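Thread: Newbie trying to understand structure tokens

Hi all, I'm a second-year student working on a class project, and my supervisor (Dr. K.) asked me to get a predicted structure for one chain before our next meeting. I've only ever worked with sequences, so writing a 3D structure as a token string is new to me. If someone could post the tokens and maybe explain what I'm looking at, I'd be very grateful. Here's the chain:
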Amino acid sequence: MKIRELAAQALLALQNLGELLGAANAQSVIGDIEYRQGRYEEAWRSFEEARGTFEKLQYQPGILATRQRLAAIERKLGNLERAEQLAIETLEIAKKLKNLRNG
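---
Reply by user tm_fold:
Sure, no problem. This is what the structure looks like when written as tokens:
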């Protein structure tokens, strides 16, 4: 069985159990697999879905990680301005989080 199929099965199982954080992480793994296979549009959709769940859960590490991956996809697709915008926004979020923690 291919790794993508295993990740999809894990995603479905986690969704059925109502484990949103686990499902978002599985969706992100699927995005990583698609990215490594050069399927950037599919990877984008996977990361966007994961990011949406991370945001719903207010899970900042997941939000930051998926935003970084989205920026990488934009760079691969040649959308350098969008990649830069995402990277800058992600950095600003990370700085705010650091300030909140150091508070």
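A couple of things are worth pointing out once you decode it. The longest helix spans residues 80-102. The chain has one domain: 3-102. Feel free to ask follow-ups in this thread.
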